[in-house]
């Protein structure tokens, strides 16, 4: 070591608040609703770059919609949006209970982030292709995917269209233009870009949308995907949901101490927007802007949805072990369901009684779906798929080695579980 | 059908041309494959003929190349990405192993990734450790991927067309030392052009060699050689020069493997030599040796022999010391003959 030079020191990021700490979000730069400029959808990408360090907000402290980003949705659409978010929240609550009861192995809630999925779904065309992460159940619900089938997938039961192969919440819904969800993070970003490139190659009018968390935006796939999107001017909207936490790692481990996530767009030379993710109207407006831009052949957009993961990462972690519980209550951007409800009340088109009725109705809808799915079996109690299905879909046609291994698996089942029905396992080969 | 003599590069180019012409969903993408036509010229002239949105250059990002190909497949296209050298495929490995290979399975058939990933592989051109590797065993180990290695221009075209038409992801490794001639292992002798080899006769137009069908490159009685790619030619040459009545099986596809052809030959000869250029430990040869002893043990008159590359990175100046050439094969044949 050269004694004349300063000793180097490694910086390891540390979140501002840990368990037990009082929380003060005063340092967050929060702009006022309605004050952000809204450039034309076909503007030069650079015209959006100021917005990458701002925060697009529509709903103000007065619970009214403000400014050029106000999407001016009619009350019927707003009530539908509210109901879909409430339904998503009720679904999450029941699924966690089901997991605790042993009906499935695992679940992930989206509490506090419902707007990022539901408002996005409503801002897109129904046949725009979506490449989601595991926390956009609201989007699937908004597109009308049957709740029973969602529970069937979560219970990995006999009716699960994915044949019990995927971890709960890793849906695939081609009829709803929703791509198969991967547990390997950010892989869907270049895939969405490739889908968008294919749509452009074919002269189609459909665009692609992808989601990614702020944590996994550190993956190479995210950056490869943005490079391809920029190079080929792909008709794609990349939604980066910054919910502040990647399991126990705060956003600083993905670079948040240095700049915003929306500002990644500046380096790639594509449009970027940073939006209050707990403001459903702002989310709708930003996604609609970016979708219209893509549809107009004006290129890709990166949207940072600035939000807060109100619950744990999944049923497998306790957030009380690594962050202050006060973060949730002190979060300065509030709760998206609550904010939209207050907006509707302030508009005079909604009241507490209607809200209570709706909450009861969505809960009953979820309860009925769970009951119907339970009749198809649960992970804990059985009614699983025949063993032979384990060997299907590895290839379009199974080669000899899979046929041999399938016979082995069925033989093992007969030895280990002699009472298990042969139904589905005999008479036909995979 | 008329045929003409082609190099392997010309045969691959012809296969791509045939498929681009027949099927509008076929897309060729990769580093330098567009205007320039590829560093080995495999895509020469294709962009000019089929247009810039069918054949185009990509950023230097194998993760991106494979990733966008997965998305294109989900849309309904049939992408044929080129990875410039097999040695560069690793940044795309997660997209291949975790995504392309399992998409059909995890979505229960809702989405598929019908792509053919072409990559030049193997040594023999003084490419050093980063332009010579044979990573086929990494892919044969992955459920959901098919792995193909042609050894002649005729097979390269027919197998590539079959791979592109296949609805599963296929890794198509092209032995780059065979691009311009049937290399027989004697690097110190004058190179032989494909024009002097009967398997350089390539039919015009569309034909397929089904994946999973091996080829008997030479019939014989005394010993079975299981080989693919460059090593098929090396084994044939050693057998010819040393007067060994070997039956040389060119596997052509590793997954799915033509197990019937393997069993039939080993049961006839009673001896088996497994040959590949890749490193030895955990190589595909280990799988072949295990299959042969599991399924043909009572026919075997000698232990299964393996001739492979060494378990070192591919060296530059000592390339020919590394390559499993005639000396290493000759020793193995001699051991089997004594058994």
From TrEMBL, chain A:
Name the domain of life this protein comes from: Bacteria
Q: Recorded E.C. number(s)?
A: 1.2.4.4
Q: Kindly list the GO molecular function terms attached to this UniProt entry.
A: branched-chain 2-oxo acid dehydrogenase activity
Q: Which InterPro entries match?
A: Alpha-ketoacid_DH_E1_comp, DH_E1, Oxoisoval_DH_suAlpha_N_dom, THDP-binding
Q: Does the keyword Transit peptide apply?
A: no
Q: Which keywords does this Swiss-Prot/TrEMBL entry list?
A: Oxidoreductase, Thiamine pyrophosphate
- Pfam families, A to Z: E1_dh, OxoDH_E1alpha_N
Which residues are in the Dehydrogenase E1 component domain? Answer: 83-378
Q: Which reaction does it catalyse?
A: N(6)-[(R)-lipoyl]-L-lysyl-[protein] + 3-methyl-2-oxobutanoate + H(+) = N(6)-[(R)-S(8)-2-methylpropanoyldihydrolipoyl]-L-lysyl-[protein] + CO2
Which EC class does it fall in? oxidoreductase
- Domain (2-oxoisovalerate dehydrogenase E1 alpha subunit N-terminal) ranges: 6-45
Q: Does the keyword RNA-binding apply?
A: no
Biological processes annotated in GO:
branched-chain amino acid catabolic process
As cofactor, the record names: thiamine diphosphate
Family membership: Belongs to the BCKDHA family.
Q: What does this protein do?
A: The branched-chain alpha-keto dehydrogenase complex catalyzes the overall conversion of alpha-keto acids to acyl-CoA and CO(2). It contains multiple copies of three enzymatic components: branched-chain alpha-keto acid decarboxylase (E1), lipoamide acyltransferase (E2) and lipoamide dehydrogenase (E3).
Name of the molecule in the record: 2-oxoisovalerate dehydrogenase subunit alpha
Look up and give the organism this protein is from.
Answer: Novosphingobium nitrogenifigens DSM 19370
């Amino acid at each position: 070591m050269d004694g004349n030079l300063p000793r180097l020191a490694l910086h390891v990021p540390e979140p501002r608040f840990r368990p037990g700490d009082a929380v003060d979000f005063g340092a967050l730069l929060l702009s006022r609703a309605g004050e952000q400029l809204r450039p034309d959808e076909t503007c030069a990408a650079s015209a959006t770059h100021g917005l990458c360090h701002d925060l697009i907000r529509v709903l103000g402290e007065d619970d009214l919609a403000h400014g050029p980003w106000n999407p001016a949705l009619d009350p019927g659409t707003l009530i539908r949006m509210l109901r879909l978010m409430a339904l998503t929240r009720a679904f999450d609550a029941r699924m966690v209970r089901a997991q605790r009861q042993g009906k499935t192995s695992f679940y992930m809630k989206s509490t506090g982030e419902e707007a990022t999925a539901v408002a996005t779904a409503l801002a897109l065309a129904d046949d725009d292709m979506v490449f989601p992460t595991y926390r956009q159940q609201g989007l699937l619900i908004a597109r009308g995917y049957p709740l029973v089938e969602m529970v069937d997938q979560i219970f990995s039961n006999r009716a699960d269209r994915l044949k019990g192969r995927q971890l709960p919440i890793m849906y695939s819904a081609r009829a709803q233009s929703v791509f198969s969800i991967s547990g390997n993070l950010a892989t869907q970003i270049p895939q969405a870009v490739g889908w968008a490139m294919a749509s452009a190659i074919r002269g189609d009018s459909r665009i692609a949308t992808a989601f990614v968390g702020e944590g996994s935006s550190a993956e190479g796939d995210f950056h490869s995907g943005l490079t391809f999107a920029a190079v080929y001017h792909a008709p794609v909207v990349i939604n980066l949901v910054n919910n502040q936490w990647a399991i126990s790692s705060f956003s600083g481990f993905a670079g948040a101490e240095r700049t915003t996530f929306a500002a990644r767009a500046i380096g790639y030379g594509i449009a970027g927007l940073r939006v209050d993710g707990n403001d459903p109207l702002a989310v709708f407006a930003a996604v609609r802007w970016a979708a219209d831009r893509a549809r107009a052949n004006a290129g890709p957009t990166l949207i940072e949805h600035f939000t807060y993961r109100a619950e744990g990462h999944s049923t497998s972690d306790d957030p009380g072990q690594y962050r202050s519980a006060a973060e949730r209550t002190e979060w300065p951007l509030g709760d998206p369901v609550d904010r939209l409800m207050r907006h509707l009340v302030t508009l005079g088109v909604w009241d507490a009684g209607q809200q209570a009725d709706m909450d009861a109705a969505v809960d009953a809808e979820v309860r009925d779906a769970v009951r119907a799915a339970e009749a198809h079996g649960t992970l804990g109690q059985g009614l699983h798929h025949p063993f032979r299905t384990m060997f299907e879909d590895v290839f379009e046609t199974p080669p000899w080695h899979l046929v041999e291994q399938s016979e082995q698996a069925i033989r093992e089942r007969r030895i280990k579980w002699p009472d298990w029905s042969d139904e589905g396992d005999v008479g036909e080969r995979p | 059908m008329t045929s003409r003599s082609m190099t392997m590069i010309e045969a691959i180019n012809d296969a791509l041309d045939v498929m681009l012409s027949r099927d509008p969903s076929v897309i060729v993408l990769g580093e330098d494959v567009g205007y320039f036509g590829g560093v080995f010229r495999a895509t020469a002239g294709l962009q000019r003929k089929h247009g810039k949105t069918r054949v185009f250059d990509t950023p230097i990002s194998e993760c991106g190349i494979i990733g966008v190909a997965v998305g294109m497949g989900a849309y309904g296209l049939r992408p044929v990405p080129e990875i410039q050298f097999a040695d560069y495929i690793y940044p795309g490995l997660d997209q291949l192993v975790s995504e392309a290979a399992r998409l059909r399975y995890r979505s229960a058939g809702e989405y598929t990734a019908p792509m053919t990933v072409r990559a030049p592989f193997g040594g023999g051109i003084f490419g050093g450790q980063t332009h010579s590797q044979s990573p086929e065993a990494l892919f044969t180990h992955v459920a959901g991927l098919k792995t193909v290695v042609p050894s002649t221009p005729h097979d390269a075209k027919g197998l590539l067309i079959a791979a592109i038409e296949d609805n599963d992801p296929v890794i198509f490794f092209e032995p780059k030392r065979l691009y311009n001639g049937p290399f027989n292992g004697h690097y110190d002798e004058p190179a032989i052009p494909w024009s002097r080899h009967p398997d350089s006769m390539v039919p015009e137009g569309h034909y397929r060699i089904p994946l999973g069908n091996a080829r008997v490159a030479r019939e014989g009685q005394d010993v079975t050689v299981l080989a693919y790619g460059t090593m098929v030619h090396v084994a044939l040459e050693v057998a010819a020069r040393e007067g060994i009545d070997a039956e040389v099986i060119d596997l052509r596809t590793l997954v799915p493997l033509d197990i019937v052809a393997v069993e039939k030959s080993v049961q006839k000869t009673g001896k088996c030599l497994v040959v590949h250029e890749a490193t030895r430990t955990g190589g595909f040869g280990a799988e072949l040796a295990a299959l042969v002893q599991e399924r043909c043990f009572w026919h075997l008159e000698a232990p299964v022999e393996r001739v492979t590359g060494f378990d070192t990175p591919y060296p530059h100046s000592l390339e020919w010391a590394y390559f499993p050439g005639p000396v290493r094969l000759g020793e193995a044949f001699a051991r089997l003959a004594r058994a």
